[in-house]
Amino acid sequence: MPIERNNFTSLSSLCDGWLRRPTARVLALTFAAASLSAPASAQTKPGIYTKVNVPGVIALSAGVGGGVALWAYLQHRKNRQADIDLITTPAEFADIVPGQPAKLTVPVTNPMSAAVQIKELAVEDKSGALALGATRQGSFPLAPGEKYDIPVTITANQSSGKARIRIVVTSEGSTKQAVKYIAVSYGHPKSRLHKLIP
Predict the structure, then answer these.
(1) What is the side-by-side strand order in the sheet with 147-154?
(2) Which residues of the chain have pLDDT under 50?
(3) What pLDDT, on a 0 to 100 scale, did the predictor assign at position 173?
(4) Residue 8: half-sphere exposure toward Cβ, Cα within 13 Å
(5) With DSSP H G I counted as helix, E B as strand and the rest as coil, what are the percentages for the chain, rounded to 5?
(6) Eight-state DSSP code of residue 13
């Protein structure tokens, strides 16, 4: 019984559209390579299909998958940006007399092999005792290994308190930025008997 020509047309257009997809192309390439890797001694007979070289298909699929994974890893490594680091240590100021302003410094060091840019310095203190002194204006750089003493002023109304300095920093050749904190404590806390703890 003759087959209508319309069926051939729709089937060819369907296969053509399917082969345009990247996944379909990879699968077609895989099966084509597998058929080429079959032993040369295998001869086809009319009406008999050759066996698919299963180990060849598996090896080729593993190779394609490994290549894609390697490409993805290299792209991730290329786009990854180095972490930004600063050496900061908690600052403790014990000799603070309530009501008397004290001008002090809090150190920060760039331990990296590349320069960093200090974008922002800010104080976080609910009591308002800690304030920045005459720091550098605006954004400023720190060379590799350079140390900078952040000037601060403490005007405590109580015997003790805690605050922190917030630092926003970026690295040379990077759009990434990091936020670092330096804890600052001042004065001596009191015991339950309202005596200063040395």
Answers:
(1) 87-88, 102-109, 147-154, 130-132
(2) 3, 5-12, 14-15, 18, 34, 37-42, 76-81, 194, 196-198
(3) 63
(4) 4
(5) 30, 30, 40
(6) H
pTM to 2 decimal places: 0.55
> What is the spatial distance between Cα 125 and Cα 195, in angstroms, rounded to a whole number?
24
For the chain, the domains span 5-79, 87-187
Q: Which two tokens stand for residue 61?
A: 């699929």
Question: Please, what is the average pLDDT of the chain?
Answer: 74
* Distance (Å, whole) CA 58 – CA 62: 6
Question: Cα dihedral angle (94, 95, 100, 103), rounded to 10 degrees?
Answer: -80
Q: Tokens in use for 156?
A: 């405590």
Specify the fold of 87-187.
Immunoglobulin-like (2.60.40)
Strand partners, 154: 102, 130
